[in-house]
């Protein structure tokens, strides 16, 4: 159980951890977070790089220190939560904040550690426990995924200035969020709770926990979410799509990466014919996008994106053949894992893959568990190559506040207001749906039965004419045009006699 795991975790021998956790994960930088001895390189938002070691920092706290604090805090909160009886979620549960202090010398509740004191806060623990239960995440699985192995920092976090970590088993993403985003998520929780109850199949982020690490006088807020792009599957293309065309092109610096994240104008240029889906999957996907956009619009949320990773199965097969049977990952997947490295008999979160997120309830489970699809949505490009698409809506914690209204007004003055990314929620949702369901994703047109019959009729006429002339390799001649209608009738009459055994004097009309 989670409580027994935490008891082992906080045993008297604090230098050993449960699951044989390597000590380096909790041995944080001896440099005190936020001290003046830490020199910084160029920063993006709160994210920077320490010049002496090259380690990433966030609010002047090293990444290793932050990862250790996160794992210690989550281990404690999950262990203590398992001792509370399960019950229905009440409205007051959404505003509860639990706090625990981690002194470096340890306490009756916390182990000793080798870095500066910090405080760990857990927001709405009962509500988030319910969310995790809805998606089939057991407490011990949640604890195992996040605390058994060191968290892996993603080196391609984007331009938001946030830090991203992924669990070693590829299940969860941990992202740092700003104060306003965390505050907005807290207000969003009751509505999010109702929507999850009514509809578990959604492309919206699945939030599993909201926490805060207080270190060096700074508040570092983090959110735990589902992982959209599994590292075990190499992504040949990645896109961040908003439905906007104003400056929506990947920068030259971004294009230098192994797998750059392209944007809307790049997609229109690279894939003018879009991605082709079977009719059933196309309809389910567009219905899911429409439902999610209506929910986001009702909460006055805008500026969200569709994150999409594309795995080209045919390209992967060619790469495997060139490498002599062992697939070499040259697509820039970070810390890729193999199936043997994952926890034995680990149950993945329910409704977490792209295919599960859009499928209707009537679909059989066999289609979901197919190893051929690996959770992705099957599609094809204009070349007919087989693709697997992994998608999800991200960055939903941006409300249309006063600052966003000013940003849209300023951009509208210098450019077409309908093409900029920042827009009022209603218009943004409509434009987002139109772009995704008309430009990005397209339905494979069914082959009409009449077309099939026409092709068959042409083939029969072609071969029967060749057999009658004694030269099946020759294309039948087209009869010359006649000016006299009587001659035309005579030709028709003569050609019709050919079907009754009389030798035809002219080729049959086609």
From TrEMBL:
Kindly give the SMART domains that the UniProt entry links to this protein. PIPKc (SM00330)
For the region Disordered, what residue ranges are annotated? 318-345, 486-510
Nucleotide-binding among keywords:
yes
**Source lineage:** Eukaryota, Metazoa, Chordata, Craniata, Vertebrata
CDD domains attached to this UniProt entry? PIPKc_PIP5KI
Organism whose genome encodes this protein: Astatotilapia calliptera (Eastern happy)
Q: Where is the composition biased (Low complexity)?
A: 493-510
Q: Which Gene Ontology cellular component terms are annotated?
A: cytoplasm; plasma membrane
According to UniProt, the name of this protein is PIPK domain-containing protein
Q: Which InterPro entries match?
A: PInositol-4-P-4/5-kinase_C_sf, PInositol-4-P-4/5-kinase_core, PInositol-4-P-5-kinase_N, PInositol-4/5-P-5/4-kinase
């Amino acid at each position: 159980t989670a409580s027994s795991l935490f008891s082992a975790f906080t045993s008297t021998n604090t230098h050993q951890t449960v699951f044989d956790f390597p000590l380096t994960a909790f041995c944080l930088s001896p440099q005190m977070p936020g001290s003046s001895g830490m020199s910084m390189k160029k920063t993006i938002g709160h994210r920077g790089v320490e010049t002496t070691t090259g380690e990433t920092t966030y609010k002047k706290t090293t990444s290793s220190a932050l990862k250790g604090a996160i794992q210690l805090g989550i281990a404690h909160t999950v262990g203590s939560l398992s001792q509370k009886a399960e019950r229905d979620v009440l409205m007051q549960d959404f505003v509860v904040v639990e706090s625990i202090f981690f002194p470096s010398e340890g306490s009756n509740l916390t182990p000793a550690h080798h870095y500066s004191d910090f405080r760990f806060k857990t927001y709405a623990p009962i509500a988030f426990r319910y969310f995790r239960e809805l998606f089939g995440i057991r407490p011990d699985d949640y604890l195992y995924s996040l605390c058994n192995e060191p968290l892996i920092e993603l080196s391609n976090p984007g331009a938001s200035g946030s830090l991203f970590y992924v669990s070693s088993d590829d299940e969860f993403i941990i992202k740092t969020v700003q104060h306003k985003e965390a505050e907005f998520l807290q207000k969003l929780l009751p509505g999010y709770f109702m929507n999850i109850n009514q509809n578990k199949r959604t492309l919206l982020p699945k939030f599993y926990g909201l926490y805060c690490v207080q270190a060096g006088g700074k508040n570092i807020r983090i959110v735990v979410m589902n992982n959209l792009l599994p590292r075990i599957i190499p992504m040949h293309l990645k896109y961040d799509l908003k439905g906007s065309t104003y400056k929506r092109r990947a920068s030259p610096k971004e294009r230098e990466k192994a797998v750059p994240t392209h944007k809307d104008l790049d997609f229109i240029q690279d894939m003018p014919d879009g991605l082709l889906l079977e009719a059933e999957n196309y309809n389910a996907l567009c219905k899911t996008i429409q439902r999610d956009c209506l929910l986001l619009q009702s909460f006055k949320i805008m500026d969200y994106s569709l994150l999409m990773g594309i795995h080209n199965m045919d390209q992967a097969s060619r790469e495997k053949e060139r490498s002599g049977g062992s697939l070499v990952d040259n697509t820039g997947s970070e810390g890729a894992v193999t199936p043997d490295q994952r926890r034995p008999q680990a149950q993945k979160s329910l409704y977490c893959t792209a295919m599960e997120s859009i499928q209707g309830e009537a679909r059989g489970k066999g289609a979901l568990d197919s190893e051929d699809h690996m959770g992705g949505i099957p599609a094809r490009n204009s070349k007919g190559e087989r693709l697997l698409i992994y998608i999800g809506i991200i960055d939903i914690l941006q409300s249309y506040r006063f600052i966003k209204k000013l940003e849209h007004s300023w951009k509208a003055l210098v450019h077409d207001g309908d093409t900029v990314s920042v827009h009022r929620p209603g218009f943004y949702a409509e434009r987002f749906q139109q772009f995704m369901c008309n430009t990005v994703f397209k339905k494979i047109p069914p082959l009409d039965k009449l077309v099939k019959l026409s092709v068959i009729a042409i083939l029969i006429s072609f071969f029967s004419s060749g057999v009658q002339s004694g030269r099946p390799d020759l294309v039948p001649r087209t009869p010359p045009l006649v000016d006299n209608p009587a001659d035309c009738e005579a030709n028709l009459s003569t050609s019709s006699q050919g079907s009754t055994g009389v030798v035809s004097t002219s080729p049959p009309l086609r």
